[in-house]
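Need residues for this backbone.
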């Protein structure tokens, strides 16, 4: 529609003034920016006069009250209060843990996070250097191998962690969201690993993509999730899916801090 009104294919026009070459469109934007800047300085701000009449002595404000000159009930204050109610500092960063945490089954959650840190660190190096680097140089092969085996270790310890929490019924005590977030992490991580296999740019990735495209097409997602498109799969692997994994991992850890580490199941002779 816009192309029918304005011919976007015509040669660009520039205004020449000494060493400055500026298109009329950019000149218009600069002028509008200067006008907005001047108005932002000169125009009075709503409620500014009433705020100036408030006492400027901060020490006179009672404990927990909003600071003078700030709007009561602002969204930042409400967000802070919500965060403190949900995750008090002593719960977010505890200095002690229950005695039952001294068991190897509780270690695999930390091992999963450690492996994920190595996966992300090595992946950042590979993304910065590019595919040609990890195919053609010795140090590139090294980081590629570190990334691969860190992923293998990540899934190994994560599956053991999921098994342990499943047989411990880790959804007890209002921890259903904690359990489900862990399951979602596992599922998204599978997609991340899958796009990683497709980003290898070797015969293995070609074989996987050609075998997987029929499955994707049969599910109706092949139109927007093209496994034979290296650029799309590479973008999913290094940006979208890792960001999703890290975001859900942060939410999972916060939920663990909020509800505490799940205790072992009671024995048959103990009280429920």
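Answer:
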């Amino acid at each position: 529609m816009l192309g029918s009104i304005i011919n976007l294919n015509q040669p660009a026009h520039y205004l020449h003034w000494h060493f400055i070459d500026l298109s009329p469109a950019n000149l218009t934007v600069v002028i509008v920016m200067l006008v907005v800047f001047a108005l932002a300085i000169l125009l009075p701000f709503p409620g500014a006069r009433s705020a100036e009449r408030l006492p400027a002595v901060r020490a006179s404000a009672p404990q927990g009250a909003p600071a003078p000159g700030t709007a009561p009930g602002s969204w930042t204050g409400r967000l802070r209060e919500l965060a403190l109610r949900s995750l008090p500092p002593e719960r977010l960063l505890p200095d002690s843990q229950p005695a039952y945490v001294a068991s190897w089954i509780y270690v695999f959650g930390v091992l999963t996070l450690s492996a994920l840190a190595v996966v992300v660190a090595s992946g950042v190096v590979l993304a910065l250097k590019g595919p040609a680097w990890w195919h053609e140089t010795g140090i590139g092969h090294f980081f590629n191998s570190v990334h691969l085996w860190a992923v293998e270790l990540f899934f190994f310890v994560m599956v053991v962690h999921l098994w342990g929490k499943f047989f411990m019924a880790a959804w007890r005590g209002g921890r259903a969201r904690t359990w489900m977030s862990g399951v979602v992490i596992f599922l998204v991580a599978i997609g991340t690993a899958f796009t990683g296999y497709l980003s290898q740019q070797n015969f293995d990735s070609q074989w996987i993509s050609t075998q997987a495209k029929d499955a994707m097409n049969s599910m109706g997602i092949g139109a927007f999730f093209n496994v034979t498109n290296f650029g799309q799969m590479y973008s999913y692997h290094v940006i979208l899916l890792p960001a999703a994994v890290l975001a859900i991992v942060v939410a999972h850890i916060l939920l663990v801090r909020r509800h505490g580490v799940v205790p072992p199941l009671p024995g048959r002779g103990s009280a429920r």
